[in-house]
Amino acid sequence: MLGVSQRMAAEAGHGVLHEAVPRSGGGYVGIYAVGALALLVLVGDSGLDSAKLHRESRPTVENLERLLTAAAASKDNSPTAAS
Prior knowledge:
By secondary structure, the protein is of the alpha+beta class. 49% of the residues lie in helices and 24% in strands.
């Protein structure tokens, strides 16, 4: 699903895909890009408040991206990274 969504966004000329939230008979699967190297996947049942998911997911993804970026920078600056 993510690959198809990425291709659709690219073909439409809308840039990089940030999220895809397909709905099935049993509920939702939210797939969110966290930077260039990580994904956040959320699974919810059919009672999920999808509007709230959309509203609250972006700040959560941004926080995760900041944490991962800080962790990567810390790792790059560690004494063992220089050896």
